[in-house]
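S.,

Sequence below, as promised.
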Amino acid sequence: MPLMRLAAIIEYDGSRFSGWQLQVGTRTVQGVVEEALAQVANASVRVTTAGRTDTGVHACGQVIHFDTETERNAYQWLRGANSNLPDDAVVLWADRVDDEFHARFSATGRYYRYVILNRKVRPTILQHRVTWDHRSLDEVCMQRAADALVGTHDFSAFRSVQCQAKSPIREMRSLQVERRGEYIHVTAYANAFLHHMIRNIAGALMTIGAGEQPVGWVKEVLQSRDRTKGGVTAAPDGLYLTAIEYPEVFKIPRLSPDCGLW
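The prediction came back faster than expected:
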């Protein structure tokens, strides 16, 4: 039987996962997704993802692809996978795609959103789903600082020391800071991201929003290309991979980068 390539869009709550990537002896998103798809295929399945998320990071628009000899229609893949997935992961869409499609290398853009609960008291219902900051944050100053990061830059100062990307150059196409009542959303759209890049940017913006550094500090950090100058890495709890962008020829549904988040 010839191999067929399928793609899927996955949503998951990262709170109880040790990140995306398969690891022996620990619970990962890739692990539960592959197990669920294997039940449908009656054979082992190995998936490729658009982007690996860290422990505690969520997704509502993660994209994967996998190859299989098993004949199933789109509904059978969707329903079958969801019947075998735990309650903190779900397949939103699945279908056959062109053999040239690649979840990672075909992507032309990625959207992330960082959600901050900005109030004096900690969250309960939304624990692990937002990042809590009790300081009074000035979202206007945060946006002014964020503007300096838009464009094509060397983001070495905002990458993890464990980052394995060959180049630190990324194109930040937009970086928006918006207050919605007690919530502040930092929405980033880029061609690609470095390891911990959004969390490091969010940490810097919150430092500025709290008045602990001036607006111009983030540009100084960027130009330094030195991670040690960039301050704290924000917690993973409020970070969501919301959408992956592909050329229309591949017919991957475009989910809203808003992702329905508060």
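The mean pLDDT is 95.

Coffee later?
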